[in-house]
Every structure is written in C-alpha cells, then in structure tokens.
Design goal:
With 420 residues, the protein is an alpha/beta fold. The chain has helices spanning 16-31, 46-57, 64-70, 72-91, 129-136, 163-173, 207-215, 223-231, 259-262, 288-298, 327-340, 369-379, 403-413; strands at residues 3-8, 35-40, 102-105, 112-114, 123-126, 140-144, 147-149, 155-157, 178-183, 204-206, 236-240, 248-251, 267-283, 303-308, 315-323, 346-359, 386-390, 393-399. It has an eight-stranded mixed β-sheet with strand order 3-6-2-1-9-11-12-10, with helices on both faces. It has a six-stranded antiparallel β-sheet with strand order 14-15-13-16-18-17. The two termini are 34 Å apart. 45% of the residues are buried. The chain binds adenosine-5'-diphosphate (ADP), aspartic acid and magnesium ion. The site of aspartic acid (ASP) has 13 residues, from α6.
Length: 420
Amino acid sequence: MALVVQKFGGTSVGTIERIQSVACLALDSQARGQDVVLVVSAMSGETNRLVELALQIHPSPYSQEYDLLIASGEQVAVGLVTLAINTEAAKRGLIKKGEVAAKGLLGYQVGILTDSIFSKARIQAIDTSRLQNLIAHRVIPVIAGFQGVDPESNITTLGRGGSDTSAVAIAAALRADACEIYTDVDGVYTTDPRLCKDAKKISRISYEEMMELASLGAKVLQIRSVELAAKYALPLQVRSSFNSSEGTLVVSQDLLGERMEQVVVAGVAADDAQVKMSLQNIPDGAGVAARIFGALSRASIVVDVIVQDVPSNGLLTISFTIGRSDHLKAREVLEELRAQSFSAMRIAEQAELAKVSVVGVGMQHHPGVASKMFQILAEAGINIQLITTSEIKISCLIASKSMKRAVECLHQGFELHRVD
Ligand code: ADP
Ligand code: ASP
Ligand code: MG
C-alpha cells in the first residue's frame, strides 16, 4: 500500500473549520487506499505570537527555553487535528467506541533526535518503530512539525518554517512513496504571489532551483526540506489545502524534460530581512577572515554575501550580510572579537536591506543574464549595493523599500508572466 506523508502549514490548520477539512482530506486519502502520516504546523500566527512574547522579555531570547516556548504551538495543532480526525472517523462509522483513527504525537514521542543547536537544530535520526506500528494498525499518526529532542532530552526547534523539514525527514525515514506539502498557495510560483500579481504557477521545478529559491527568500518551502528531499530523491508535491489543483512537483533535473531547454530564469526570490555589516580598520594579514567568520560560525550565524576590499595602508574593510534575526547575536560576537583581537575595528551596520535574486538552471548556458538583471534594476532607478552570483543564481542587495518594485520589474523583464 502506498504511504504518503502529508504536511499542513499554519493557514491549513488556522481555524477549526480548516482543521476539520484537514481531517476529511486525510481520511479521504486513507479511503483511497493510502497509508497516511500527518505532520502539522502551529495554527497561523501562533509561532509569531510566541516569538513576540519572548522578545518582550529579552531582545535576543534564543536559548533552550525559547525553543521550549515556540515549539508549543504545534502541540495545540496536533491535539486539535487528532481530535478532528477521530470525531470525523466516528461520524463516518470507520471506528467503533474505544477505537481511534488517529494518534497525536510530539517530536520526542516519535524519537526525532536532533543536535543541540537551539532554534536551528538539525535532525540526526528518527526512530520509526512507533510510527510503523500505528500505520500497520491503520491509525494515522499526527506528528508535531518543527520540533525534536536533543540527546539531553531538551526540546529543540528546526528553524522557522521547519515543519517542512520534519515532514520530509519523516517521509525519508519511513521510505514513503510521496510527501505532500499543503499550504495556502497552490504550488511554487515564479515569484511570491503576494509580491507580484503576475506570478505564475510552475508545474515542475528541480531540487537545485527550489533550493536556491528557498535559500533566497521563497519561504514556501524551508531550504533544508528541499536539501533532504534531493538527498533521498523523494519527490515533493506542493499543493493547496483549499482546492484540489495539481500543485508543483519538486524533482531531480532529469525529470524536468522539455522545460529545461526553454527556461533561462525560472523564478525571482526576495528577502527583506537583510543586514549589512562592514568591519573597517582591520589589519591585513593571513588568517584574519578565518578568525572573524570562524567566530560567527561558532555562534551558528549564517553569513551570506562577503566582500573584502583592497587593503589601504595595511588596513582592510570586510562587509557581509546576515539575516535580521542574527543581527544582535552577530554584534555581540564582533564586539567580543574587537575586545580580544582587533581593537581599532569599527563596526558599521545597515539594516532595511533586501536581497532580490533571479534563479534558473538554464542560466549556466546563457550569457548575459547578469547584465540584463542590472539593466532592469537600473531602468527602475534602483541602486545595487552588493552583488553575488553562482552558476544558477544572481543576487543583488538593494534598499528594502524598493524590493516589491524590483521583483515586479525583474518578473516582467525576464518574461516570467509568459510561463504556462
Ligand atoms: P505554511 O504556513 O503553509 O508553511 P508559508 O507561509 O510558510 O506557509 O509559505 C507559503 C507562502 O510562501 C505563500 O503564502 C507565499 O506568500 C510565500 N511564497 C514566497 N515565494 C513563493 C513562491 N515562489 N511560490 C509560492 N509561494 C511563495
Ligand atoms: N510553526 C513554525 C513556524 O511558524 C514551523 C512551521 O510553520 O513550519 O515557523
Ligand atoms: Mg512554511
């Protein structure tokens, strides 16, 4: 029997009505002969609410207790979804008194073992025995996404949007036949449909392109979920819990077929939570960059664009970008480094920045994509502060206030509104 892992995001469990339709959807899949495992997120807005509460107490609250707090939204959703499935199953006459159709489980109860990097924990192992036993008895496991447990039994969380990663990891561990990500849009679009009304749904996209889009701000899938899906060659289907439209299949490049030849740019991504930090007056010398970025990496801060200027009078300026949520932590790390090693270092910071990117595997064989991107932004009067490129993406750092216009102009300029 085919096994499918279905993940429901915040909006899909945002109200009691939505939860009841998730229950129907899961039971319908089971009635079609599939074995079903559910992974659920917190009700929409709930994790943000919990984060806000913590921020009222401390500007940088990230700790064990922070994870304990923000993981709690998923527990509520698991309880409600499980209750809804059991109620609906009884109504449909699928279970007798005393029997259950679904069983709710938190991360630790499923043995989702992670490391101890709180707020960004990585899954190390999943013990599938309990899940397999439930599946064998046709009971639907309803699992809390986003959370795990570390070797010291502390609750950990997997980073914002982490329920996607929980779902893919569980699907991979169970060797499921499919993993369906139900969300509030009916697939992956050429850009965020909230930013550009001309965005078009993509029927198939490669893991590589989806990883780039996700890492560059397309939060429809958490990047680590796509990395894991690619590693296990697990096809991911992104679809809406509001309608039965086909959605988008995220697959390996060789399954893209025709599409690859035609498309140079597959999508535009944007992220407006960027901070640029410039470190001035650093003595030029071997090992300087290693010291700075080593300290940031030990604090689990992900650094993105890095630019090192030509030294002048033996002094360097190194600029780099980070996500806004790491801003305070990065400042603390750098101030400590200044106190220890670089007493003359000046730290300049610029927030209110956004990164806009174009992504496409076709770019590898088509010259001129970068110059076209710069031309489009120039014509829109948008100033570029930093540029980075890889084989399949070009990113520009710009002012946050210009982000929406930049996305619209790039979408139009690269003719993504013509995608069918
Ligand atoms: P969920 O709560 O279901 O996990 P998310 O809010 O995390 O949902 O992700 C879905 C959202 O991702 C959409 O509402 C959309 O605004 C945004 N998004 C950003 N880029 C894209 C894209 N390229 N395609 C589709 N949605 C996108
Ligand atoms: N509830 C968590 C968040 O809002 C996890 C998720 O939705 O995937 O980030
Ligand atoms: Mg999400």
